[in-house]
Specification:
- The structure is a single chain.
- This protein is mainly α and 120 residues long.
- 53% of the residues lie in helices and 0% in strands.
- It has a domain at 42-119.
- The chain has helices at 27-31, 47-64, 75-88, 93-119.
């Protein structure tokens, strides 16, 4: 099984960028936890439940409410949940593909939201 770090590219980051502090250091950089070593990753079998939940929630949000956050949980929140899953678990190829699909759905939702707001 390949334990290399999974790289999940998306066209545009969903995350908002924070301003720089007095010393020119990004506040996001200060809050980022150290990367988890491959031998400390959770087994892939534990990721399936989380993936099931994320697929249900993101699918429901994209289908039912394409332009508004649900209960204040915006796309940045859901992206952070998906990325945490990637960083904490030793995912199988099938699970990595599920993650890719979730990130694509989130990206499409942001794109649709942007198009709706410019059309109004």
């Amino acid at each position: 099984m390949d334990t290399a770090k999974l790289h999940i590219p998306i066209k545009q980051p969903l995350r908002r960028t924070a301003g720089k502090g007095r010393r020119g250091i990004s506040m996001n950089a200060l809050k980022k936890p150290p990367p988890i070593k491959a031998e400390n990753l959770l087994p892939s079998r534990l990721a399936d439940q989380q993936l099931d939940h994320l697929e249900r929630m993101i699918g429901s949000i994209v289908k039912n409410s394409p332009a508004a956050p649900v209960l204040g949980l915006d796309p940045e929140y859901w992206e952070s949940r998906v990325r945490a899953l990637v960083e904490e678990n030793n995912l199988l190829v099938v699970q990595q593909q599920r993650v890719q699909r979730l990130l694509i759905k989130l990206q499409q939702r942001v794109k649709n939201k942007t198009m709706d707001s410019t059309a109004a």
